[in-house]
Amino acid sequence: MLFTGHVTWDQFFLLLGTGIVDGAILAPACLGFSLQFGITNYVNFAYGEAMTFSAFMAWVFGVEKFHLGFVQYVLVAGLITALGSLLIGALIYTPFYNRRPQLLYLLVLTFATALILAALYVIIWGEAPHVLAYPDGASNTHYIGPFLVTNIELIFIAISVLILAGIYALLKYTTLGKIMRAMSDDRSLATVCGLPINLVSNATWFITGFLGGIAGVVLGLHSYGFDTTLGDGFVYLVFAAVIIGGIGRSLGAVVGALIIGLVFELSSLIVGSALTPVAVFAVLVLIMLFRPEGLLGSTGRSAFSRA
Amino acid sequence: MTSPTLIYVITILILICVNSIAALGFNLQFAEAGIVNLAYIMLVAVGAYMTGIAAVGPPPPGDLVTHYIGGFQWPFPWDLLFGIACAVAFALLLGLVALRRLRHDYLALALVSILQGMQILVGTNTRLFNGITGITGVPAPGGDLPLLQSQLVFLGVAVVCLVLTYTFLSRITRSPLGRVLKAIREDEEAAASLGKYTVLFKLTAFAVGGGIAGLSGGLFAMYAGGWSSTAWLPQEGLILLASVIIGGRGRNLGVVVGTVVTVGLIQQLSGFLPLPQGLSVTILPQLQVMLLGALIIVFLWLRPEGILPEQKERFEKISLDPVPAVSAAVGAGAGHPSDTRQS
After folding, report:
1. Fewer beta carbons within 10 angstroms: which end of chain B, N or C?
2. CA-to-CA distance for B261 and B268, rounded, in angstroms?
3. CB-side exposure of A15: number of CA atoms within 13 Å?
């Protein structure tokens, strides 16, 4: 099944719309992951686990126990995930970085943390699928221009735009955002300038945890039934998008997210839906071969960065 | 004496041998060449799948749900050699794309991304390797003998493979290639400035490590009689990472010791410990993953060089200047790659 027959415009626009929605779901997650790397120097393999955690928190607060409304449980899950991210960041990651800042150790540390968390989730929530509570009329469809979208997909896009605008304003106009950018540019220089490195690191863990949390709830809603592998099955797209956009670059993360979302959906027209990961790899390989610093990455840092 | 205890002891020994082979290959990539390949288990999977499809026959004619490529019915050892060759080829391809220009952090990220994507691709695509069910009925050498004999034959095969791998890797470590790899690991720019084309050396280590991964994967598939997408989840790679970190990265003997600890003590013996009240046996694999992960973090924090640390090579001080004070200052960086005598 290499070519799925002739493609109608309806199909094309349906997938284009879904691709944009996928990109919108990916964007906050990619932005959070990229900010974490830029500011704390951690390639956080446990980011998918933060998303899984948040989806389950949304399930606990929306379905299992407290039956909160839609907006409430999204926010509560996001905030609890942010707190969890802050805890792990402040208690494990930051002290570890101060003791052994070698990249090799940091990579192994977050990889091990990710698998510990994943195992913990299976112990707590088992392997059965869980379904979140949807707001009324979530699956009603509209035509917006040529795109056929559901209400919930519009909500996803709205959440994504709100978050991206919020982070843009934070980075551009607040003191915290300026320090975050300074640390991302040159951590040692920021340190000798007397900027509150640890405080801002912790703030970063909190904010990026919140981003991952919201992304996790949205992902849980989007997948109509999820289990503890929710984040793992998604986070490879986040990694790919971040590499494509340029790691540590905020705009790059958003651009990468949109590209991956579109490639993921539109490629199914050509290679069939079972082979979409291949299309994502193809884009990733092209980037690795021809622009290894990412589309918007800077070439300033040495290609021989030490392990 | 065909007691279950004896069979169990043989099983543990086989698992230690096969896991040691896998961990040694990982050590070559991770510790000798400094490539943070947290997706190593993917190379193991390539060897296992390709050995599997070379060994089994095609799906039976009436079976409409089983699909996989291959089905050559090759006898041992040709199926295993085919698996190794495919793993080397896959590692070369992956290395050619990823190792050339990517920074270390990008590389680690890209490899894990490819691992997760491959998982989904192979798990959901039933045409390639029969999806989530995987390849079954892979024959083991001596598999038609009675239980005890067949286990002993397989143990023999595993021990021979381990000894060959160990000897081969020890020779690599001592060879000029091994010294260049360590120089690249310590300071890639310095090695490059000495005229070494570092990508080629890293690619060699990556491919050789991939071949060893393929060997261990083929043995895994034969021993278990099959291979499926749940056999190479990222957490299956954690035990190899733990073996290398706990045992001592960069030292082959340390890696084997680490494997004895992780497979023998943690994976097997932990099953005999009483579980806390109210916990069921089904969560044991999860508890083991958590224990392995926690051990890795504890070792990284307290003793990152592992139980048996790597023996750093010492080089005689090279006098570059007649003034003794200056020459002592230069020689103070003993073991620095710029002092490394390369062939």
Report:
1. N
2. 10
3. 18
The C-alpha atoms of residue B34 and residue B24 are separated, in whole angstroms, by 14
For residue A293, what are its two tokens?
Answer: 């610093």
Total residue count of chain A as it appears in this document: 307
3-class DSSP state of B341: coil
Give tens-digit pLDDT for A64-89: 888 888 888 999 999 999 999 999 99
Of A115, A275, A285, the CB nearest to B234: A115
Say which DSSP state A90 is in. I
Rounded CA gap, A161 and B140, in Å?
56
Weakly modelled stretches of chain B, pLDDT under 50: 326-343
Closest residue to B297, CB basis, from A104, A109, A118 = A109
- Determine the Cα angle at B203 with ends A233 and B176, to 5°: 140
**What is the distance between the alpha carbons of residues B55 and B75, in angstroms, rounded to a whole number?**
6
**Whole-number Å distance between alpha carbons of B220 and A191:** 50
Assigned fold of B4-271+281-311: ABC transporter involved in vitamin B12 uptake, BtuC (1.10.3470)
Paired tokens of B93:
């391809």
Among B residues 181-210, those touching chain A with beta carbons less than 8 Å apart: 185, 187-189, 192
Residue of B nearest to A236 (CA): B113
Answer whether B155's CB lies under 8 Å from B14's CB: yes
CA B208 → CA A294, B215, B286, distances in Å?
Answer: 29, 11, 32
User: A112: nearest CA in chain B?
Assistant: B293
Q: Grade residue A209 by pLDDT with cuts at 50, 70 and 90.
A: very high
Look at residue B338 in the predicted model and tell me its pLDDT.
43
Q: In chain A, where do the E strands start and end?
A: 141-144, 147-150
CA distance linking residue A237 with residue A27, whole number of Å: 11
**pLDDT tens sequence across A111-133:** 999 999 999 999 999 888 998 88
| B278–A contact, CB cutoff 8 A | no
Q: Tell me, what's the ipTM?
A: 0.86
Across all residues in chain B, what is the average pLDDT? 86
Give percent of chain B with pLDDT exceeding 70: 90
Which value, to the nearest 10 degrees, does the dihedral of the CA atoms of residues A105, B33, B48, B74 take? -170
Structure tokens of A272?
């069939």
The pLDDT of A89-104, averaged and rounded, is 90
- DSSP annotation of B277 reads T
What is the distance between the alpha carbons of residues B162 and B171, in angstroms, rounded to a whole number? 14
